[in-house]
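Minutes, project check-in
Item: structure for the 374-residue chain
Input as provided by the requester:
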Amino acid sequence: MKVAIVHYWLVGMRGGEKVIEALCEMYPQADIYTHVYVPEMVSERIRRHRVIPTFINRLPRAARMYKTYLPLMPLALEQLDLRDYDLIISSESGPAKGIIAPSSAVHVCYCHTPMRYIWNMYHDYRADAGLLARCMMPTLTHYLRMWDVASAARVDSFVANSATVADRIRRYYGAASTVIYPPVDTEAFSTAASSEIGEYYLMAGELVSYKRPDLAVQAFNELKMKLVVIGGGEMLGELRRLAGPTVSVLGPQPFDVLKEHYARCRALIFPGEEDFGMVPVEAMASGRPVVAFGRGGAKETVAKGHTGVFFEKQTVEAVIKAVRSLAHMDINSERIAAHARQFGREQFFRKMRTHIDSLLAQRSDAAEPKLASI
């Protein structure tokens, strides 16, 4: 069986790319198509595959400025010749599902979220954009929305990474979907003895505005409690300027450093609304509770009062109140880690194989010639 995996861009290793790694493990023969490919920024497992970029990859400064070429990506996807493939899996968060699949192939879209910059977070992105981008966005995003909805009809089956995303798929595309949580490598993390737990809290992940890392920094400035921030992104410099004496902004760190901080922190602070959110699951796999904004994927992964607590408004005061409420929670590291294991890699492999095999069987049955009745 010939398999193609279509991913929006391969310029780093975040949640979407971890899903691609898992798909590569499921289908070692797969070819990968993407708009922009920076080999040194992705894992060795992905690099083993034949990776074919679209023409976007050849445009000036594409490795850094790929998002500025968003209006050209629908055209780039439709130029891909996928006639030889039996199974096509698109990984959607940026434009990926809009390929033209042959009628004989099965096209499954694993949707991390419909493009947030043209749908649910459009007004947030426009408010943060520069003057020129703010002026151009209404027209460009109107065109992209029409194409995005039209291209949804080219998908045979949507798989959503959470019930939150399944609701967006229904709202924006009018399509049903199957929820299969992304693969979190829960076995890569371990718990620490109670005597090894430090006096600091942790925030980890990409430091971008919609994840609201500024809320955590401001809250811990006021609490005068220790917070360690791990991650890179466009807000790194701003957070370092904002950080008070009790907040340490470490920037990007190797996995071993992150793993140690997960295991030894008092709790993870998760102030943004995520589609699923692998970071809280990784923290829980390390036996640590989560203080999370009560929206999005965190509501599906964090068990209130057992593995963490929620705050309902994205305000400094709400974060402070939630952090203080942890003192009333019975924190059991082994119980928290056991809860996290239900989101491990095996559930992803098992459910994805079952779902895809069912679609392939249906397509095969439909292709069987029917004998005419006499």
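Outcome recorded: The chain has a mean pLDDT of 95.
No further action items on this chain.
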